[in-house]
Amino acid sequence: MAPVACSGRAVGCLARGLQAEPALKKYDAIVIGAGHNGLTNAAYLAKSGLDVAVLERNDYIGGATVSRELYPGWTYSNCSYVCSLLRPELARDLELPRHGLQVVPYGGGVTFKRDGDYYGNYYDHNRQYREMARHSKRDANAYERYATDVMKQTRLIRPYLLRRPPDPTSLKLRDLRDLLGFARSFTEMGEEGLADTLKFWTKSVGDYLNEYFETDVIKAHLGGTGVIGTALGVYSPGTAYVLLHHYMGDVDGNVGSWGFARGGMGAVAGALAKSFQAFGGEIICGADVDRIMVSHGKVKGVALRDGTEYRANIVVSNLDPKRTFLDVMDESDLPEDVVRKAKNFKIRGSSGKLNIALDGLPTFNGLDQNSPLMLGDMHFTDSLERLERAYDDWKEGTWSKDPYVDMLIPSQTDPTMAPPGKHMMTVFVQYAPPRINGGEWTDADKAGFEKSVIDQIAAYSPDFRDLILHCETRTPREIEAEVGLTEGNIFQGELTFDQLLFNRPFPGYAQYRGPVRGMYMCGSGTHPGGGVMAAPGANAAREILMDLRRPDVVPGGYADD
Amino acid sequence: MTDNYDVIMVGAGHNGLVCATYLAKAGRKVLVLEAGDSPGGAAASREFAPGYSVSSCAQWLYQLHPRVSRDLKLEKHGLELAARDLASVLLDVDGQHLSVLGPLAEGGRLGGEDRDAYKLFHEKTLKYAKLISRLFESRPPGLVEANLADRFALVKLGVRLKLLGREDMSDLMRIVLSNMYDLMDEHFDSPQLKALLSVDSVLGSRMGPRTPNTVFGYLYRRVGEVFGYTGVAQVKGGMGALGEAMAASARARGVELRLGSRVRSIDMFNGQVTGVTLASGGQLRAPVVVSNADPVTTFEKLVGFRNMETGMARRVSQIRCDGGAAKLHLALDGLPRFNGLEDAQLAQRLVIAPDMNYIERAFNAVKYGEYSAAPVLDISIPTVSDPAGAPPGCHVLSAIVQFAPFEPAGGWEGASAAAGESHREHFTRLVLAKIAEYAPGIREQVVASELLTPADLERGHGMKGGHWHHGELSLDQVMMTRPFPGATQYASGLDGLYLCSAGAHPGGGVMGLAGKNAAREIIKRGAPV
Amino acid sequence: MTSKSDQTMMLRTPFHNRVAAACELNAWGTWKGYTTPTAYTDVELEYFAIRSTTGVFDLSPMNKYRITGPDAEACLNRMVTRDVSKIRVGRVGYTVWCNDAGQVMDDGTIFHLGENDYRICAFARAIDWLHWCALGFDVTIVDESDEVAALAVQGPTSCAVLLAMGLAGLEQLKPFGLTTFPFEGATLTVSRTGFTGDLGYELWIAPDRAEALWDRLFEAGKPHIIKPFGSDALDLARIEAGFLQAGVDFVPAESAVRNGRSRSPFELGLGWLVDMDKPVFNGRRALRREQAEGSRYRFAMLDVDGNKPAQHSFILKGANKVGTVTSAAWCPTAKSNVAFAQIEMPHGAVGDELVAEIYYQRELQWTRVLAPCKVIDAPVFNPPRRRAVPPGSF
Q1: Residue B206 Cα, gap to closest chain A Cα (Å)
Q2: What is the mean pLDDT of residues A48-67?
Q3: Hey, where are the domains in chain C?
Q4: What local confidence, expressed as pLDDT, does residue C1 receive?
Q5: pLDDT score of C4 more than 90
Q6: What's the pLDDT score for residue A366?
Q7: Could you read off the pLDDT of C30-74 as tens digits, one per residue?
Q8: Cα torsion A249, A254, A255, A260: sign
């Protein structure tokens, strides 16, 4: 289905051909891709006084932070769908609220059990205790310890979100100083606290949860977060960190809580774009970059597929590392190790998405329609074993037959998503492989994938199927084709420890600088990684400004929260 | 009150014997108490059928530290190798076997590119293994409450890392956390080569090639090469002979070794270890007790959770130590014939694992408490090099079988899905059928068979969970977190009690380093005052 | 199925109907998810009921755990710092318990109900920790928080009230004693305990007898001037009596996110609860080390000059900040301005003279006061009637 409307929400992006003398214009910097990180990066460069252009292949901006009206009257956040990780320091500094962004927290959440019962996750602490205690008093009590322990890890990592990762192989003063700071925050945890941190980072989410809880459904409810967007199972070491990655955000200081961007996730990109434009930046849509031009080891600008060239001494790529180095850059312009590292970079597709227009609010087994549990994330996988088996399907090169879904109905909270009385449902699906048994996804595969998800939901909601007005199904194939995310990986690269911090995207290039002078990276493929955080874009801007010897206009993180 | 021993060692496993010998060498009066009738622990031989004997747990020697071997004068005390520098051979149904020994990979369907790539890979990973091996040769450093020695160790590690060069250093820091599957795909095309190396990364553990951390498992095994082993070696008389040689060395140093002497408990008074109580009832006193038992057995059974603080008991109860490997022993009335293998090649290490996905699928089962329908096998036919293990003309086949749960639902004697068969019988038949795909006539040659499951290993060797390494060797349970925070550096966290088993740093495998490092620590710290 | 979890936000205690009827101010707070009154009529008047007649506090939300089985004593003895074997059947003991690092997880009371039968009352939820503590012991642990309703009956006339209610012989019950009475076909357990520092008792009963108990109590108490009191009055009374409150005066160790924010019993002035002669108990190794190497902080009870409560104040020694106040109040009976503070060693010894930096506002104007204060060695309120047996008629 063709897009009915482009919603950057009243963002005046210039269509190609409407600008004057494009080939002659030389910018201070060009950002490839109008994803949220590209826009954030561009906004800071522009704020510092540079003449910046953002080139976007699609007719609309946002990348995976997008709202689209694919069915008249309904708005889909058809890629990313909830908001918590967006750094408040950046939202405030770039005046995103003034530019139209409002993030509304949602409560609730529920995992339905096969036996007809469910586990509900209430926003209110006491109520959540009671619900958990209904399943196990011990688990309800252990949850307090769990929350404390996870918070310890969260506090450790949060101050590093708005900083570049130190390079442990470097002997430069700044890196050594960063490393020392790192070491200090580690030693503050104490001997056993630090040992716990080492264990946490190398452990599977399943093993981690087993240390606290005894109830399957509670472990499954909490554990799903450890594999979202990741081609690993709940028993794979390293997934406890992925859990943390989803906990480290906040809505107005409530660490770990999530919200909806009013108007869909496109509102985030829209506000960023307006902020950028307010600083004098220029967004050019329909500009499909063919290659980054390099001459004598220096960046010269970019060339589009239609032959148009834009000149700039600084080019920032918001694309994922594979697309950046293996697609828009010429192998002959790159050192051998970068090509090899880019080829080996893990960016596996593991998830899919269904966006559904509903004629009304569906009912779910055992749950009152007015229950606050309906407002949050809903799941149908009630044990770690079922989660793990869903991953086994991915390993075999097929979509999960008993998929894990992260399903929300944002129209219960945000009235702009659907007409009154109607609803919009977003269904994130784990797992979907990038290729089916080694081959491309076919339409039949896509239909099979869609069926497995619809069947999963319908098994718990008798009226669901009849309420469906329209369903957009996105397998990794569609995500890659539309958004440009290689293999449809939502994080622009796996969040495994071999690809985090100084390893992200790969060793030697983790500080946003590319291998060619004037070339930078600012996407989620760089530290601190995926999610609508905007931190990579901001951190990259700080490095660029430093290289240009311009004042740092990028804020640091808030302390001790 | 004392029985005049400076140290009582609980268990005569190889690390216990190594530790005891070093302590005796330093002038300590050491008593070693072993429940079994022979020394060696998991380095043991047993007659599983009349006239047929086999290394009942570990079957290859490939990591024993040369310093330990030298210091204990093991050759003088009877250690003899029946064969060494044995290649690993990945069996192929069509006889296109791939063989790997040291930097050389050949045969199979290996292309020239992969052969060269393997040489480079071998060289690079050997460098990494060398660095890791240095860490294995001393106690793990403290992190925050580090003393001068710890700081020095950390600095040394840092310097060694830097000395690797920027590229290799960052490469090591990246891959050590990652999984074998992806690393193999990065380097090679040959499914056989990828599979053979992957087997090394998951042997004895509950991980598949896709599991992050398995590269560490691979480097862990490669440490053997740093210690002088190209390929694997076979001990004459089976691994039990190694145990005997170590026992002889210990006795020669004045260690008193009592076999058949089961320790019921490690005794504490006022937060301090006082000695042990024997199953037979007697009590023995010493200011220092060293446990060669695995950490869970040591703390839960021997000390007792009630005699330690709750946080420690919680730590112990959270150690992951369920085994994933079983052992199959076959008594054969003749030499088996494998498609495409010469008889002489049968002395080598034979591996069945056609490709990485095969291993991964085999692993899937154990996640759900089931055994693999198509298991991974690491096969030894020890009687080829050492005919004394079987009646004349007869042979023994010994195979490490992965993956097997500690116990399937209903227990190993419980009814399986196959009609009329227990799980034990069913799994034995599956493994035999798998071997028969490569050695078609083998079923007719079987005179007797024995399957040792993780549950059997727990019973037979007192290893909790039947885990070879006394606790999973995954990154959250190694180095400064092995066996658990608060009990690293061989001091157990209980005054006077030390740990020297594979459950302590550096971990499992017949290396002798846990025993050696522990001895050094005990000598340094001495008895509590 | 809505009954499962989509009930009202708040729980109600078994006394709720009576409490709600008495709560004229309609001033509600929450305690462990239960709706509980912060005040019924007037905090001041409620406080004076405790100190002059009889006050009644609904204690039902308190965490209560039952530990039974052959190893019950051994298990508790390993868990808490004091020697449980010295708490005989029919006695109650106040104690703290630590984690392995010797940091206080909580304080509470242990009721020795019978042979191998204990109840432990705790501020924080402890069922998870109790299960960990039970590893290696033959014990059964039950969370009976919801199965036991409780009232604190505190004040000089409290014994008279309960005697009037028919609890004959209660006057012989010693402080921290425990006894039972038949009550409407059930068992009423009475302990001479409380959190007010005054003569007082706590009554424990099955929830279905709760309203009957309330009614009988208030009927019998009428001539002795009985009043219910809320959490605000209780807070005042406990500060005056020198009682610490978990979550206010210290952070329960396992809920502290930041390293170093928890405290040891020595640092809370509760060293007298630690029996180092016990061979093993949680925190022993760390506490022994602390004894050898010294504590980081000291608990100090401060007598503050003036009448401005030193809430949230910094404590200064000269120009240096050496501590912070955790609880503070003007104590109406003792006529004294008390603050509890955590003082960095070596400061804060009894007699030490310090300064409290107090901020207060009057009609929106904030004022900073540097009030001299002195570390005192005992609570400002500690009347003989609290210990007297029989308590006599006051």
Answers
A1: 11
A2: 96
A3: 8-62+146-241, 63-143, 296-379
A4: 35
A5: no
A6: 83
A7: 999 999 999 999 999 999 999 999 999 999 999 999 999 999 999
A8: negative
* Residue corresponding to tokens 């002959």: A332
pLDDT for residue A5 is more than 80: no
Q: Report the alpha-carbon distance of residue A548 to residue C12 in Å, rounded.
A: 65
Query: Distance between CA B329 and CA B52 in Å, rounded?
Result: 10
Protein fold of A105-147+204-253+348-486: Polyamine Oxidase; Chain A, domain 2 (3.90.660)
**Superfamily name with CATH number, domain A5-102+262-345+494-547:** FAD/NAD(P)-binding domain (3.50.50.60)
Residue A149 touches chain B, beta carbons under 8 Å: no
Let me know: does C67 contact C130? Beta carbons within 8 Å. yes
| Chains in contact with A, where contact requires at least 3 CB pairs less than 8 Å apart | B, C
CA dist C2 and B528 (Å) reads: 61
Residue the block writes with tokens 């008249």 = A72
- Taking the CA of residue C98 as centre, how many other CA atoms within 13 Å lie in the half-sphere pointing to its CB? 28
A28 vs B: CB within 8 A: no
Q: A21-30, A308-317, A370-379, A528-537: which range is least confident on average?
A: A21-30
pLDDT tens digits along B194-246: 999 999 999 999 999 999 999 999 999 999 999 999 999 999 999 999 999 99
Strands (E), B16-162: 30-33, 45-49, 52-55, 81-86, 88-90, 98-101, 104-107
Residue of B nearest to C72 (CA): B306
Name the fold adopted by C296-379. Answer: Elongation Factor Tu (Ef-tu); domain 3 (2.40.30)
> Can you name the CATH fold of B7-46+61-81+235-319+471-525?
FAD/NAD(P)-binding domain (3.50.50)
Nearest to C99 among B300, B305, B311 (CB): B311
Chain B residues with beta carbon closer than 8 angstroms to that of A236:
210-212
pLDDT at position A8 is 37
Q: Which of B267, B301, B306 to mutate to test the interface with C (most CBs of C within 10 A)?
A: B306
Which 3 state secondary structure label does DSSP give C23? coil
Q: Do C9 and A138 touch (CB under 8 A)?
A: no
Mean pLDDT within A152-158 = 88
Condensed to tens digits (0 to 9), the pLDDT of residues B39-65 reads 999 999 999 999 999 999 999 999 999
What are the extents of the domains in chain A?
Answer: 5-102+262-345+494-547, 105-147+204-253+348-486
Q: Cα distance from B125 to chain C (closest Cα, Å)?
A: 39
* Closest-approach residue (CA) in chain B for A187: B144
Instruction: Tell whether B309 lies on the interface with C, counting CB pairs under 8 A.
Output: yes
pLDDT at position B399 is 98
Q: Identify the sign of the CA torsion B29, B33, B37, B40.
A: negative
pLDDT, mean of residues B451-457: 96
Give me the architecture of the C8-62+146-241 domain, per CATH.
Answer: 2-Layer Sandwich (3.30)
- Could you tell me if A418 and A406 are in contact, meaning their C-beta atoms sit under 8 angstroms apart? no
Do C280 and B271 lie within an 8 Å CB cutoff? Answer: yes
State the best of A152, A167, A169, A201 to mutate against chain B, taking most chain B CBs within 10 Å: A169
pLDDT at A248: 79
In 3D space, the residue among A285, A228, A556 whose CA is nearest the CA of residue A408 turns out to be: A228
Residue of C nearest to B303 (CA): C136
Query: What ipTM does the predicted assembly reach?
Result: 0.94
pLDDT at B2 over 70: no
Report whether the peptide linkage leading into residue C346 is cis, meaning its omega lies within 30 degrees of zero. Answer: yes
| Record: contact C283-B309, CB cut-off 8 A | yes
User: What is the distance between the alpha carbons of residues A267 and A246, in angstroms, rounded to a whole number?
Assistant: 21
- Reported as a single tens digit per residue, the pLDDT across C375-393 is 999 999 999 999 999 997 7
Distance from CA of C281 to the nearest CA of B (A): 6
pLDDT digits (tens, 9 = 90+) for C90-129: 999 999 999 999 999 999 999 999 999 999 999 999 999 9
A120 vs C5, C131, C256: nearest CB:
C5
Is A190 in contact with B368 (Cβ distance < 8 A)? no
